Amino acid sequence: MDPIHRGPEEFGHDSKGFAEEAGRRRPSRDPLTPDFGQQTPQQARVVTLVAGDLMLTVNPIDGSEVEPCPPGEQPPAPVRRSPADRADRARAAAPPVPPGPPVPELPLLRRDDERERLTRLLAGGRSVRLSGPAGSGRTALLDAVAADCAEFAPDGVVRLNGHKRTASDLLHALFDAVHDAPLHRPDRALLLDTLRTTGAVVVLDDLEFGGAALGELLDATPECAFLLAATPDVAAPGADSPLEEVFLTGLDRATSLDLLARVVERPLTEEEANWAGDLWFESEGLPLRFVQAGALLRQRDQLRTDPTAYDEYGYLENRPADAAPVPEGAENAEVPLPSLGEGAAPAALLASRLSGAARDTLRFAVALGGEVPHQAHLPALVGETHADAALGELAGCGLLSPAGPRYRLAAGVLAQLAAAGYDDDTADRARTAAQHYAWWTGHPSVTPARAAAEADAIIAAMSRLVPGDGPGRTSAAVLLARSAAPAFAAGLHWGAWERALRIGQEAGRLAGEVAEEAYFHHELGVLALCTGHPDRARTELETAISMRGALADKSGAVAGRRALALVEDRAGGGPVAGDGGTAAAFTASPPLGVPGVAPVSAQRTFDDDTAVVASVPLPPSAVGKGVRRGGPLALIGGARRNLVAAGAGVLLAGVLGTVVTLGLTSNSDPQGGAGTSTEQEVPDDDGVYDEEVTAGDPTTASPSGSGSGSASPGPSVSGSASPGVSSSATPSSSSDGPSSPDTPSSPGATESSVTPSKPTPTKTKPKPTSTKSTPSETESGSPSPTGSEDTPDPTDSETSDPPTVPDTSDSVSEGSPSGDGA
Prior knowledge:
- There is one protein chain.
- The chain has 26 helices and 13 strands.
- The chain is of the alpha/beta class and 822 residues long.
- Among the domains are: 111-249, P-loop containing nucleotide triphosphate hydrolases (Rossmann fold, 3-Layer(aba) Sandwich); 669-711 and 763-822, no CATH class.
- Strands 6-9-10-5-11 form a 5-stranded parallel beta sheet, sandwiched between helices.
- The longest helix has 27 residues, at 639-665.
- The protein is globular.
- 36% of the residues are buried.
């Protein structure tokens, strides 16, 4: 309770009201299910960061989403860290101090010449590559030189570790060490621009690459001086590299004995000195071997000590219960020195004298390929509350070496423990570690930076399970990759992110988990897009979309299509696979110079999927382009092109209509003789259809009942026009005499409604009613009785002349009667 604002229950006042208020504040519980209402749903950790000009949203559920960074969301320019910030960050990045008794700090013996030379070269702005065998003391020398160069550069000293890191990883790590840019991963251009003005002494241990990659690292940082430490088996730098080479050898005999005495913290006996001399010859003076030999001598001293001599002071009461027992009757007896072979490869003997938790920790380290879990994970992995103290035991024996913010097995220890049988159950321990890390990395309380610091151990656990023969091993790797990959992405450790995705994709394929495999393909595509590899991104995203489409994963497929659309947009635009009709695909078109011509009657509707095709030559820029679903003749597509095509089609239709009309009306010859037709005729099926109509339709019969079936146009009944003929085109009577009003002209007139009458010698002057008329001549070839033979008129009824202009219109139905049957 707050000591100032005390609750009423402390003074005995209004306790009932306070209890009622507390009851109202607390949610009610179901007595049958008391735990159901108390569970808080675990939220997915969604992190939004900026990568270059893209905004990346790390979504652990459906897959990360990427989009162009909005105008107001661009991060500010990177700010240089202050010296205090750099010091705090360096302390946080150092490996943790192991619990337990402090490990004695050993001085740097007989390395003064190398130390002075390295410091002088770095002070002059030169970069140096320090080469030496594993266990030669390179890390200790780097620590001493880094302390000497603290004031040389404006951006101070930056400590990096190259274990399983590429040149790109180290460049981004250097950027993050010098500049403060939270949740911002710069693109290549900004990264090189910023590092070009960075001035720091970069101390890089455990370098694993050389050649062109090393040249890229040096060229990107012209204002930095590098101190690189590598083993002789690492590739050498290029021939034109500006690096200075410094070789580190082992210690001499006297210095090796001095180091052994400092580790044991007492003078050496003559027997121990002779044994150490033989060990110096065998190990070539490597300092690591004498640190481990000193641990063997300390264990020997503990075995020679009477465990009950200091019981009254509680000394050695915390001795591990499962440690190697002291032989009976040998409390004060002499314990023999280790053999020369045990001194040269002491890992198995040292481990046999440690506690059970320490030995279990070593087994986990062997299962993880030499990566030692952080001390905070040891109690959960080993199953012992105080298992974190095992790290101090291992560090005091020289079995560990620092690697960035963590520890690894020292050089040669992994092979020695594997030979001693510590790799018998590596698969089971790797699966146990994978299950633990899957729970830990997915917990909301674990920050992405903390998960990224454990990346090497996590990836090692996945690698040991793929491929796996045991049950559930690949599934455990899939679960760990699914949980850890988003944390690595949010922690900006993209090298580990890519390795986790590739291992998880392979594990998902082996385990048959298609949904998880599709997720990893999607993430690989997003990663490739953010790092500037559009071809790789397109391949991965198309694979993910197809797999999610087969699984009916709509949300995942939508996320994949969005990312793929962005890939196509940034790559210059091609068709997007699986876009559901939202993007245009290209179809074949005629070659250059060949016009795309379609019939005029091929009229299409303007909508989203089709286009009007006109007989217009294609421009050169349109060759090879088309519309997705318009067919081989669809040459114009899209909203703007549809509008242009629509206007062209309307204009073309008007022009063609005018041409047809002029052609139909221009066939009348005012100076022609008798028999010149005033209307166009089209023979129908070579007279077969006319024969049928003449024989069966009374409206086409001649007045005399003969075979001549010519009919002159007359006024229609009730003023109605024939089908297909406009009412304004109804023929009118001439001034010589009107035709009989009882003459039916509509096709609706039947035989009973037609009244035969005697033809009158009147002459009609019809107007053209349509572009097509009934045949004016039968097989007998008799002239029409309505025509005048004395005064021929070119405007008289139709003659037997054959048509001269073919009909191109289908608007009037064939066989429509236009003359009376009387």
